[in-house]
């Protein structure tokens, strides 16, 4: 059985290591830099989702936002629910690998900087939608509760929505090494912008933490993806490709 060196859990811990090193070293200014990195990361991901949507000739709306996601968790890692799609889409998350990793390692206070902004940034990068965060588990709530403000999928669209989601399958998804490399790139850019060489050292120390946790091979894989243009749409076969 091959060793897993890239997963949602790796993504969660890389963020926690970077956030902890930065915030512990730079305090309030570190918090701002981490937040800036998360927002940049989320907006870039949302932008790529939009590029795929447009490449397929589809509209940038909440329906397609929910279809063109770039990742999927492993079986059993997530418990994501949609209590309603109208008059506004409501999304609840009861379980995720980010919370799972941070909670068992006592790192929720650092992980919270990711959860406060990443989803709203994704929606903003996609088409400027406002995604409201009403509750979040990293802040002590029982679940993560989101509302897409003013956005709905009417009942008469639900059958087509489901069919389109099944049709695209995993075609828009990227491997976890891509997402982890993107996270590293976006966070490092924001932290170096804020603190220069000292910020670069903080990120380097966080990467040492990551290597100590997951090994040299996982560490090297992050760096292999460090210099990709994450504003560009990766190679994409299109929703209609058989």
Offer a quick outline of the entry.
The chain has helices at residues 8-55, 62-67, 97-104, 108-115, 118-127, 158-168, 176-214, 216-224; strands at residues 79-84, 89-95, 131-135, 144-148. With 242 residues, the chain is an alpha+beta fold.
Structural commentary:
With 242 residues, this protein is α+β, with helices and mostly antiparallel strands. The protein has one domain (8-224). The chain is built from 8 helices and 4 strands. It has a 4-stranded antiparallel β-sheet with strand order 1-2-4-3. Helix 1 (8-55) packs parallel to helix 5.
Described by the principal axes of the CA atoms, the overall outline is: globular
What can be said about the biggest beta sheet?
4 strands, antiparallel
Q: Order of SSEs, N→C?
A: HHEEHHHEEHHH
Count of DSSP H/I helices: 8
* Percent of residues in β-strands: 5-15%
């Amino acid at each position: 059985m091959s060793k897993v060196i890239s997963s949602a859990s790796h993504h969660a811990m890389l963020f926690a290591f970077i956030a902890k090193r930065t915030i512990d070293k730079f305090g309030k200014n570190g918090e701002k830099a981490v937040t800036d990195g998360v927002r940049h990361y989320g907006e870039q991901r949302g932008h790529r989702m939009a590029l795929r949507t447009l490449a397929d000739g589809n509209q940038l709306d909440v329906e397609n936002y929910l279809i063109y996601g770039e990742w999927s968790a492993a079986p059993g890692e997530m418990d994501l629910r949609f209590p309603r799609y109208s008059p506004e889409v409501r999304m609840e998350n009861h379980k995720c690998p980010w919370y799972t990793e941070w909670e068992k390692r006592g790192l929720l206070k650092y992980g919270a900087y990711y959860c406060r902004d990443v989803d709203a940034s994704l929606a903003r990068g996609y088409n400027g939608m406002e995604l409201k965060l009403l509750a979040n588990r990293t802040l002590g709530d029982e679940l993560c509760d989101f509302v897409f403000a003013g956005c709905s999928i009417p009942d008469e669209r639900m059958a087509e929505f489901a069919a389109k989601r099944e049709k695209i399958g995993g075609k828009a998804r990227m491997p976890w090494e891509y997402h982890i490399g993107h996270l590293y790139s976006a966070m490092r850019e924001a932290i170096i912008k804020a603190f220069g060489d000292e910020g670069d050292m903080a990120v380097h120390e966080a990467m040492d933490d990551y290597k100590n946790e997951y090994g040299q091979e996982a560490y090297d894989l992050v760096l292999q993806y460090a210099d990709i243009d994450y504003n560009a749409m990766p190679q994409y076969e299109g929703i209609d490709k058989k």
